[in-house]
Write a structure and sequence with these properties.
The chain has 126 residues and is mostly beta strands. Helix content is 3%, strand content 48%. The strands form two sheets. Strands 2, 4, 5, 6, 9, 10 and 11 form a seven-stranded mixed β-sheet that branches.
């Protein structure tokens, strides 16, 4: 089992930055070869892919809407996943979820991931 806890969300003005963190417990990231991802869900919409990273951080993936503004990274020694979000836009407003997959390579679909956090709210004002 893997437990995931997100933090770092909040209210920010358009153009601002936030860094989300996801602390993992139960299985160490360094030994588990888990792929990790960030998804987001706006009110009334389905959960959608934002970014993902493979087990060793060697490959990253982004949805086009965040490419060039968001950076996903992981520190396996600290059992933590990050999402640096810059130049935020009102359309980035959503609950952001951290996810972990037992498969070492990352994918963009929710069904690929086995464990989910509770989410952290990000609100970007115009």
């Amino acid at each position: 089992q893997v437990q995931l806890v997100e933090s770092g969300g909040g209210l920010v003005q358009a153009g601002g930055s936030l860094r989300l963190s996801c602390a993992a417990s139960g299985r160490t990231l360094a030994r588990s070869n888990l792929a990790m991802g960030w998804f987001r869900q706006a009110p009334g919409q389905e959960r959608e892919f934002a970014a993902a990273i493979n087990w060793n951080g060697g490959r990253t993936y982004y949805t086009d809407a965040v490419k060039g503004r968001f950076t996903i990274s992981r520190d396996n020694a600290k059992n933590t996943l990050y999402l640096q979000m810059n130049t935020l836009k009102p359309e980035d407003t959503a609950v952001y979820y951290c996810a972990a997959s037992l498969y070492g390579e990352a994918e963009r679909t929710t069904g690929w991931y086995h464990y989910w956090g509770q989410g952290t709210q990000v609100t970007v004002s115009s």
